[in-house]
Structures are given as C-alpha cells and as structure tokens.
Amino acid sequence: MTGKSGSLFDETVQLTHLWLKELMQDLGWDDRHRAYLGLRVTLHALRDHLSVEAAAKLGAQLPMLVRGFYYDGWHPAHKPAKDKNVEAFLAAMEQGFRQSPTDQPIDPAAVATAVFRLLDRHVTQGECDHVRQSLPKALRALWSSGKAARPDIVPM
C-alpha cells in the first residue's frame, strides 16, 4: 500500500504487534495467537461490563486494528452485563478461550491483569481511571492503579 492510508494501516499493524509483544512478555508467552486471544477475550469481557458510553470512550483510544476486534460481535443494547462481578467477568473470558481453544491452560485472572497493565501503559490515565472506577470493587482489584511502566519495552 502506498500513500497516507497505507501508512495508517502499517502504523496500526505495527502498534498492534507492539501490544501483543508486550502482552507476551508480561505473561511469559511465546505464541502471538495466544496473546491475541488473551487480549481479545479480556477486552470483550471488559467492554461487556461497561456502560455503552464508557465502552465507546475506551474503544476510541485503542489502536485501529485492536478497536476492530474490540467491537467485533458487540451488541450495545444488551450492555452492560447484568452480572457485573469478577466471577462473571472471568467466566466470560473462559468462554472466549473455549471458543478458540489453545493447547495450554490459561489463567483468566492473570491474563486480565496483564491486559489491564497494557491498557495502563497505552491508554490515557484519565480514561483508565474512569473505566476502573466504573467496575465493581472486586474487579477493580484485578486492575492495579497507576501506570505500569515497563523499562524493558521501548514504545514505537
């Protein structure tokens, strides 16, 4: 691709690869597809536990490619989820993993925590604070407060 749109597409692909690389490093994984799956199921569970407005505001800050799979399959008329607790959140993640099984067991709480740290590094602090505060207290505990800087990861 050439021109401005090609550059924009290349940029979002590179940024998505960076996010997946950071997630793989954080979780100690070496499988990019597994990291994509972890990011996707966590973002879907998070999105479905937010109000439509909060979900849209978070989505606006995601890289274009990540935003695409964040919104994939979303039905805003049915949101937020009725069971807004950590058990329902993790159960939604487990369901997502079952739909695209991997050959290794996955700890949904560890994946969610890693994705939340990733969001802390790449989404504005104000938006992360807003999303975090809209979650139930037990679910907020999975999401540590403040930016989680990683000195071994250099942003592109």
Our count of helices gives 8
CATH superfamily: Uncharacterized conserved protein DUF2267
Order of helices and strands: HHHHHHHH
User: Which descriptor suits the 3D outline?
Assistant: globular
Helix content: 55-70%
Q: Major β-sheet, in short?
A: none
Structural class: mainly alpha
Q: What's the CATH architecture?
A: Orthogonal Bundle
Determine the mean pLDDT. Answer: 85
Low-pLDDT parts are 145-156
What does the model show?
This protein has 156 residues and is an all-alpha fold. The protein has one domain (28-140): Uncharacterized conserved protein DUF2267 (Globin-like, Orthogonal Bundle). The protein contains 8 helices and no strands. Helix 2 (32-48) packs across helix 5 (86-99). The chain is globular and about 40 Å long.
Descriptors for this entry?
156 residues; mainly alpha; Globin-like; 8 helices; globular; disordered C terminus
Brief sketch in words of this structure:
With 156 residues, the chain is mainly alpha-helical.
Secondary structure elements and pairings:
Blueprint: H1 3-27, H2 32-48, H3 52-60, H4 64-71, H5 86-99, H6 108-122, H7 125-133, H8 137-140
